[in-house]
Amino acid sequence: MIVRLAQAADRPGLLALAAEVEHWFGPMVEEPGFHTALDEHIGAGLALVVPRDSGPGLLGGLLFGAEPPVHHVHWLVVSEAARGRGVGRALMAEATRRYVRGPGTIELITFGADHPGAIEGGSRAFYASLGFVAAEPAERGPEGGSRQVFRRTVDRAPSPDR
Question: Taking the complete model, does pTM exceed 0.85, yes or no?
Answer without folding.
Answer: yes
